[in-house]
Design a protein that fits this description.
It contains 2 helices and 3 strands; from the N terminus they run H-E-H-E-E. Strand 1, helix 2 and strand 2 form a beta-alpha-beta unit. By secondary structure, the protein is α+β, with helices and mostly antiparallel strands. The N and C termini lie far apart (31 Å). It has one domain: hypothetical protein PF0899 fold. Helix 1 packs across helix 2.
Amino acid sequence: MHETHMIEPVIKGICEHAKKEGAKSISKVRLKIGEFTGIKEASFRETFKTLAKGTMLEGVELELTFFLASRIEVVSFDVE
């Protein structure tokens, strides 16, 4: 799971931002994943799901787009 070190900061950053804005929950997250990271979609989804347990992102709907880069970008997320 080499994705862990890339996904943990994404989860932490989204949760911190959402809490700061007073969000009670997050329903959807849109991410762009760089193809040069070597991350495969199925593996990313499984690792994200595991790492999100117990956070505001547990059970969130993930919308993933792949692009030519070596990073992960948070495009947006829906809060309530």
